[in-house]
Structure formats: structure tokens, C-alpha cells
Design brief:
Radius of gyration: 21 Å
Mean pLDDT: 91
CATH topology of the largest domain: Rossmann fold
Distance between the termini: 7 Å
Number of strands: 15
CATH class of the largest domain: Alpha Beta
Largest sheet: 7 strands, parallel
Oligomer: single chain
Number of helices: 13
């Protein structure tokens, strides 16, 4: 094979999917692989800015909605009425790309129709995800999450050759509570390790600021105000907020708003505490720097609370529910978290390199590509 053509089909709900896929593309490009993308929404623009790869626009397959900033299954179902039509459109777009670009392998990052199109065309499929089981802190055992998880697990048992989890292998899997699979499917799942940007290894660490970047949902805006009050009450806490969301409080002497920055790593590395939501990418980055993490969780979100449970078990941080936090409880959590003797997981990052392990799996699925 002269040059391999690989298609990444990327979910646009948040930027975590796009971020890890573009990191893989940069790694693959160094090995002579031609990467092509299909995405939608903010992920489409993000990929265009982060790479020089060809990017197709594809239909949205997943709709997540909320009320007051909290995830809502009712609003999500209302907004999902058009999803069957979108899946057909997504399938058609993927089919056209597969045919036009002479694709040798497809990587579906939480996108589904392209996997079916590739399966029909006998193109190998890799599915990347950090979840096949769904539950929330507020509703840990409801029927609709059980049903949805069963549908997803059935798809994953049929369509892809391998399901790649960009996380540490058990027992250190941060997303571990978000997975269920049978013994017969266990060989299909590969825990490849975190996918980090190479520049993260060159950043020096210190302990100066309280790093805060936990989303811009409406219910979180008062929490930023609480942080400002806490910084005024305790002058030893210099808070820096990384958000471009409207409604943030005005800056204060110890409360700064950085907004968008080219690289978040120098700021996260200079923190004594990272206050973040429970997304996997941010968790991997903060834990890499050895920072205690304080997670502010949407209790109805079907992933983040489970990540928070594992973070606490591993001794890397604490979580608090966003629907019940007060200024006093937030301040207490900050002080408690900063006193933690955080588990040292740095060695795991060297042992479990997501990009290298991804290439190893690719070698197995399309063995002729590196000849």
C-alpha cells in the first residue's frame, strides 16, 4: 500500500472527540498516513483550525439538550425526533466519502451511520468511545439509560472490528463505571491509554493559581460568582477562569478571567487545584500534571458522575453536585482538595500511550498499510 487513507467521523457534542481525533491525525501524518475528517458543529470548525486535513460536513447523529443547564432526557428526546432522518443523511455522506476518497479504514468517534456504511463496503471499522453504559448520579438505574446502553452495546458487538477506549486499562480506567461488556466481547475492547498532545510533556509545573474551567451552563454561572467571593474572602486563593461564556462575574483582585487561550497547559500546570467538569480529556490532562481535581458535576449527566466516582477511588480528587453546592461547601471542598496527597499516575502515561497503541491496533486491522 503506497499511502493509507483513513477517515475519522467525529461527534460534535463538545470538543473532546474532535480534540483526540486531531491529535491522532497529527501522529498518523508523521507516519505517512492521509487523514480525512467528517464532522459537524463546533467540531467541524475546530478540526479545520487544528489540521490541514480535508474536512467534510456530516449530519448530526446525537442531540443532547437540557433545562436550566442541566441535562434533560425529556428535552433530548424532543430534539431527537429528527435523528432517524439525520442518520440516513449521515450514512449517505459517509458512503460518498468512502467511494470518492478510496478509504482504507474508518474511525468512528461516537458516530454510528458511517460504521454501517463502511461495514457494507467491507472497509474495516474502528469505534472510539469512553462509554457504552449510561447512568447519572440523580438517576442511577432508570429504564431509558439501560435501554440506550443495550442498543449501543449491540451495535458495538456487530459493526466495528475493535472498540478503542482512550483511557487507562483496568483497574485504573477513569471511565470504568461507564462500561459493561460480556466475556465474548472482551477481546473486541482495547484500552489504548490517554491521547495527549505531545506539547504537554514540555510544560513545567508549579503551584500558583486555582484553575477553573467547568463549562458555561446556566446553573454553573452562580458557581463562578461563588469563586469570586471565595477569592475575596481568602487572599491566598488566586482564581483564574478559562471560559468565554456570557454571564461571568467581573474580575476582582484575586479573580481573573482568561477567556480563550492558545494552550491551556501552562495554566493548568501552574495550578494548585484544577476545578473542572467530569469530561475525560480534561481529567487526563489535570491528572498528568499531578493536580488534585475538584469536579463540579451535573447530577443528570449520564457520564461525568461516573468519572467522578472513579477519580475519588483513585485518590486523584473529589466531586460535588452542581445542584446543591453553596459558597461554604465549595470553599470547604477547595481547601480539602488542596490538602490531598494525590496519587502519582505519571508512570501510567508512559506505559499506556494512546497514539502508539492506536497505531498498533491499526497494524492489526490493516496489516499492509505499514509495508
Amino acid at each position: 500500500m503506497d499511502r493509507m487513507n483513513i477517515l475519522f467521523v467525529v461527534c460534535g457534542e463538545g470538543l473532546g472527540h474532535a480534540s483526540r481525533s486531531t491529535k491522532l491525525a497529527k501522529h498518523l501524518k508523521e507516519r505517512g498516513v492521509n487523514c480525512i475528517f467528517a464532522a459537524y458543529g463546533k467540531a467541524y470548525s475546530f478540526i479545520q483550525n487544528q489540521t490541514d486535513c480535508k474536512v467534510y460536513e456530516i449530519s448530526r447523529e446525537v442531540t443532547l439538550e437540557g433545562t436550566g443547564g442541566y441535562f434533560s432526557i425529556t428535552e433530548t428526546l424532543k430534539s431527537s425526533l429528527g435523528i432517524p432522518v439525520s442518520l440516513v443523511k449521515s450514512f449517505a455522506t459517509a458512503w460518498k466519502i468512502l467511494k470518492t476518497e478510496n478509504i482504507d479504514a474508518v474511525v468512528c468517534d461516537t458516530m454510528f451511520a458511517a460504521g454501517v456504511a463502511a461495514k457494507i463496503r467491507k472497509v474495516p471499522v474502528i469505534f472510539m468511545t469512553n462509554q457504552n453504559y449510561f447512568s447519572s448520579l440523580a438517576e442511577p438505574d432508570v429504564w431509558y439509560w439501560k435501554l440506550f446502553g443495550k442498543v449501543i452495546r449491540t451495535y458495538l458487538s456487530i459493526i466495528p472490528k475493535k472498540v478503542l477506549v482512550p483511557d487507562f486499562a483496568p483497574p485504573n480506567t477513569i471511565s470504568g463505571y461507564n462500561f459493561r461488556f460480556s466475556k465474548k466481547d472482551s477481546d473486541r475492547y482495547v484500552f489504548i491509554g490517554p491521547i495527549l498532545d505531545p506539547e504537554i510533556h514540555d510544560v513545567e509545573t508549579s503551584e500558583k493559581i486555582v484553575f477553573a474551567s467547568f463549562g458555561g451552563e446556566p446553573f454553573k454561572m452562580p458557581l463562578y460568582a461563588m469563586l469570586k467571593d471565595i477569592s475575596e474572602m481568602d487572599s491566598s486563593l488566586e482564581v483564574e477562569v478559562f471560559s468565554t461564556s456570557p454571564g461571568l462575574p467581573a474580575e476582582g483582585e484575586n479573580f481573573k478571567i482568561a477567556g480563550y487561550v492558545e494552550s491551556i497547559f501552562p495554566y493548568m500546570a501552574s495550578s494548585k487545584l484544577a476545578i473542572i467538569h467530569g469530561g475525560l480529556t480534561s481529567l487526563h490532562e489535570a491528572i498528568y500534571f499531578g493536580k488534585p481535581v475538584l469536579l463540579i458535576i451535573d447530577p443528570y449527566h449520564p457520564e461525568q458522575g461516573n468519572n467522578g466516582r472513579k477519580v475519588e477511588e483513585l485518590g486523584c480528587g473529589m466531586m460535588i453536585r452542581g445542584d446543591s453546592v453553596t459558597k461554604e461547601s465549595l470553599y470547604e471542598a477547595i481547601l480539602s482538595c488542596m490538602k490531598m496527597d494525590v496519587a502519582d499516575m505519571k508512570g501510567l502515561y508512559a506505559e499506556e500511550c494512546g497514539a502508539e497503541n492506536f497505531c498498533r491496533v491499526l497494524d492489526e486491522i490493516v496489516p499492509e498499510w505499514n509495508k
